[in-house]
Amino acid sequence: MNTQTAYSILDLAIVSQGQSLPETFDHSLALAQAADSEGYKRYWLAEHHNSDAIASSATSILIGKIAEGTKRIKVGSGGIMLPNHSPLIVAEQFGTLGILYPDRIDLGLGRAPGTDRETANAIRSDFYQAAMSFPDEVQKIQNYFSSDNATEKVRATVAEGVSVPLYILGSSTDSAHLAAKKGLPYAFASHFATAQLMEALAIYRNEFKASEVLDQPYTMAGVNIIIADTDEEAERISTSLYRMIIGLLTGKRGFMQAPTEMTEDLSELRQHPSVLQMLKYSFIGSKQTVKQEIEAFLEKTQVDELIAVTNIYDGEDRIKSYRLFAEIMRELNQD
User: What confidence score (pLDDT) does residue 2 get?
Assistant: First the structure.
């Protein structure tokens, strides 16, 4: 690799079986503090709702907790699901965060609900209409952060002129067009939406128009990472992730389960086409194994930044995996 590839974390504040919510939030903070010392560029929290296993629903509040407990790392949303919210309120929340933690807050914006249809309707009855207005809603956010908005009747006074970079998130090709048109950085959710990664990256790069914030395209891709001392140990730890994914696909959403040995039944289920497709960009194994797979992924995608997602049961195992991933990235960046 000739260029430096940044590396970051996406956290869902996963709730493990038998773990309290305060413990979950403390684990997220401990991970962010470890990431701060390991050279990670950013620590993003994802907005999800109505799931026992995901505690990052009040995303902006958790961002404040993580930013308060860290020193250098950028903290933000991966993302705020904009159709769930008023752009004015989002601008006020993130403008305030940007004032409290200068030059450390990111605002990643997505258009999916981050939940099921019933919950989406409970959050906002006109959700699907709002989703169709996503480009206009993003523009409203940009307006509220602009110093020029000071003369408008409707203002987010705590956001005007505050430095909070915007990122467009995508899990299909739709948002690639928007990110390119606006000249904003583009993050693809390839840790679960794998089918259109390469097509979306190509659209974004081909259609990109330079803006005040970017001269050239900036791409980010999500990958699932589970690293342990041996391939066998990593596979054992990964059984929690596989059970979570199978639960999502079968509508049985529950807490993150403790790892077990890889049973014959689970081994068969993880070969199901839907599971294979969703976890296509999952790199599980020892440091040596994962390093080779990451190098190949970077060669294929040429992304500027990797966002690692490590959804496993034990907080210490998670921190260890992220430390080993940081070692891999530092080594690849030196090559």
Answer: 47
